[in-house]
Amino acid sequence: MGYRTYACGPRAPYGRFRGRRFSVTPPLNIEETETAYHLTVYAPVLRKENISVSTQSDVLYIRYKAEEKDTAQFIYKEYTGGFERSIDLKGKVDTSGIEASYEDGVLRIVLPKTSAAGRPSQDVPVA
């Protein structure tokens, strides 16, 4: 028995049903360097003005609010929903220095590390 790929539904690779609407969350990569974390969100065909990146209570929020379209005349309806991703920063990021850019369908976010996050680990002797 081979592996089956589902185009939609609860077993879809990047989506799931929420009631009657199909929700898609784009894939996200996180790369760590000595000075920062680099997030890459692969989200083609999105409008830059509808993307929101914000922080609140040490959590990074990436949101996309899609425009509602009247698609009654179309036979095929493209995905027009929005999404939200949240990432706990755990005090390791200097939130005042966060930078974001969206180009060619790729959202790139640079999260500079705090000085505490760059400290090497240490062993603590147990007495």
TrEMBL record:
<dbReference type="InterPro" id="IPR008978">
    <property type="entry name" value="HSP20-like_chaperone"/>
</dbReference>
<keyword id="KW-0346">Stress response</keyword>
<dbReference type="Pfam" id="PF00011">
    <property type="entry name" value="HSP20"/>
</dbReference>
<comment type="similarity">
    <text>Belongs to the small heat shock protein (HSP20) family.</text>
</comment>
<feature type="domain" description="SHSP">
    <location>
        <begin position="19"/>
        <end position="127"/>
    </location>
</feature>
<dbReference type="InterPro" id="IPR044587">
    <property type="entry name" value="HSP21-like"/>
</dbReference>
<protein>
    <recommendedName>
        <fullName>SHSP domain-containing protein</fullName>
    </recommendedName>
</protein>
<dbReference type="InterPro" id="IPR002068">
    <property type="entry name" value="A-crystallin/Hsp20_dom"/>
</dbReference>
